[in-house]
């Protein structure tokens, strides 16, 4: 693995763990059945957990504005910072974080939706945006 790839993986792990701490400050719970017990980490997949109650795998992304996104966690943080700093053109964001314009547009939309969502599953995301906006991010 080259140094830049290792650095990206390191940054992504830090960002993922930060999102996990925000979402599950009282311990991991299943976003599907809300089970608090019988949750275990999947050894073969970093960041994945399995609920023994409903037998589903999940990550911090599940049932949130980050659902079904393959954008690395650290790029979500960079996109939130870019919006905080007044960024508005999807082409600028795409270039800055190395994604397509379509992906940048979707990120912007999801971040804006997450900032105003009243869904409890997005509370951690609203908190992440607030912390980053106040300069208290990762």
Give a description of the structure.
The chain has 138 residues and is mainly alpha-helical. It folds into 2 domains: 1-24 and 65-138, no CATH class; 28-59. Helices cover 49% and strands 6% of the residues. It has helices at residues 3-23, 73-84, 90-97, 101-116, 123-133; strands spanning 39-41, 49-51, 57-58. Helix 1 (3-23) packs across helix 2 (73-84). The chain is globular.
Question: From the helix content, strand content and strand pairing, which structural class follows?
Answer: mainly alpha
The coarse overall form would be globular
Largest sheet data: 3 strands, antiparallel
Helix content: 40-55%
Distance between the termini: 25 Å
Summed up, the helix count is 5
Output the helix-strand order: HEEEHHHH
On the 0 to 100 scale, the average pLDDT is 92
Strand content of the residues, in percent?
5-15%
State the low-pLDDT regions, or none: none
Rg, rounded, reads: 15 Å
Tell me the count of domains: 2
Number of strands: 3
Strand order of the largest sheet: 1-2-3
List keywords for this structure.
about 140 residues; mainly alpha; 2 domains; about 50% helix; globular
